[in-house]
Amino acid sequence: MNRSLAGLPAVSQSDSLCAQALKFGGYVQGPPLTAIRVFVVAAESGGFQQAGRQLHLSAGAVAHQVRQLELWLGSALFERLPRGVMLTEAGSQLASQWRPLLSQLEAVAQQHREQQGASHQVSLTLVPSLASSWLMPRLEDFRRQHPRIELNLLASIPSEDLQREGIDIAIRLGTGPWPALAHEPLMPEWYLAVAPPALLRSLSLQQTESWPLLFDRFESRLPEQLDWPRWFALQQLPEGRRLGSTFSHTYLTLEAARHGQGVAIAPLPHLLDDLQSGRLQALPYPALCGPYAYHLLWRKEVAHRPAVQAVCDWLRQQARACQTPPAIQEGLCG
Fold this sequence. Notes:
Layout: H1 17-23, H2 33-45, H3 48-55, H4 59-73, E1 78-81, E2 84-87, H5 89-115, E3 121-126, H6 128-135, H7 139-145, E4 150-155, H8 162-165, E5 169-174, E6 181-195, H9 197-202, E7 213-216, H10 228-234, E8 244-247, H11 250-258, E9 264-267, H12 268-277, E10 281-282, E11 288-299, H13 306-319
Parallel strand pairs: 3-4, 3-5, 7-8
Antiparallel strand pairs: 1-2, 5-11, 6-9, 6-10, 6-11
Helix pairs in contact: 2-3, 2-4, 2-5, 3-4, 6-12
């Protein structure tokens, strides 16, 4: 006997859903496919909040979809606990049965899209700051080279399940592993300390404690990224003051630097256009290679598509400018 929801009879072998619907004077609708997909993600990720992050929904929206599915089934899929949720026996069984069916549906839908000409559509995800600072200024070149390819962009915090989100390609910072995806290194993570020219001329190299520092929380949320304390230690300089503004995204940190609010450290892809235009200049210290690298990831089942291959080739082409750090000019500081 399945665990029943409050106010609903349990569904047993002798009392089918159809019989219940007739008993209450209703009719049976088809299964709620959206709710099933949300439930499977919640089951695999371990909770409503985790599923919400993957699906770009609130935890409340995930809970609502699961509740609607439970009402449709007439049995509980999750046991609500004081801290989180836990799959019921029925929920665990249904999740394991529905996952391969959803994967099959996604594969059939993708095949149909390709047959209908949607093979010219390619989806790409990367963190918001890399999308803003590096990719967006280069999209005009992509459209000029590939006018028939429709590139759909999703700026998001990393998630490796591209299949579930229907995404073809991703750029991710890290070391992996990504066992379900094809991947290759795209560009290293060279860090530079930068400031606008006017502020740079006023800085004293000997008085690092006087530098107005801008702090970045790093969108990738990876441990041991190159922050200011590590930068000072590797440059063998006395650590600057810890007071300063902190930003949740690298593009916000660099926007503050452009407006003269302080000195920032960031990877070269985020800085390339600012350095070339002169909006920002690098402090006269060696570029430091961070502990991670940017990787190009793509779903193996879409690797044969010419449009996916073209996007990957174009990304490799654009990444060549970030393989080595630029020469640092001396004598810029006061």
